[in-house]
Design a protein that fits this description.
With 246 residues, this protein is of the alpha/beta class. The chain has six helices and 16 strands. The strands form three sheets. Strands 3-6-9-12-14-15-16 form a seven-stranded mixed sheet. The chain is 40% helix and 17% strand. The two termini are 34 Å apart. The longest helix is centred in the C-terminal third of the chain and has 23 residues. The protein is elongated.
Amino acid sequence: MLLISHIREDIDSVLERDPAARSRLEVFLCYPGLWAVWIHRISHALWRAKLRLLARLLSQVARFFTCVDIHPGAQLGRRLFIDHAMGVVIGETSIVGDDVTLYQGVTLGGTGKGHGKRHPTVCDNVFIGNNANLLGDITVGENSRVGAGSVVLSDVPPNSTVVGVPAHIVYHNGERVLILDPHDIKDPLSDALIALSARVEEMEAKLGGQAQPAEAEQFTAEEAERAAYRKKLDEMRQYVSMGEGI
């Protein structure tokens, strides 16, 4: 009876979150992401009962029919919604909270070959866009969003939106987060640009310090243009995407 109760709860959560869902019967028959979660409930019980091989076999059956690979050791919360389902991977030591939404292609993966906790922990009410990769023993805080295609390698605070490769915070507690220091992104390309900029400044200092007046005016105009563009974005930020998937 508990499984039936969870099935009803999962179907209702899909009707609330997916505008394409029109009826409970449609959700029950046409949402393989839910089938994967329901089969995982059984395989996880077998895993906890030390019937590890049987649990793995059942998870492979689910993978064949749903294209969702959930290790039976993973801990999934209530009302998990895997939309479109294709290519989702959830590793053995992953922990997923309640009311989490995953889109196609999401990976909750491990790093290295060590034992123990090596997969992400995703807290309640988290949204993860399509083809996002969360790698290692990291934590994504409550009510956070991970943008489509992002690669998350470090912890995400609650109530945050992260995007990029590697992912960095662009919203926190509803406020836009501006990246003022390129080191904050931790991108190898940013390090190269910083080194190049430092080299240019060093060469300018050796050549006499100041740029030509015409060049200085050009740089001033470009900076004013960038400032006007940033101001316009701030004024229209309610229309700017929060880094969602589909």
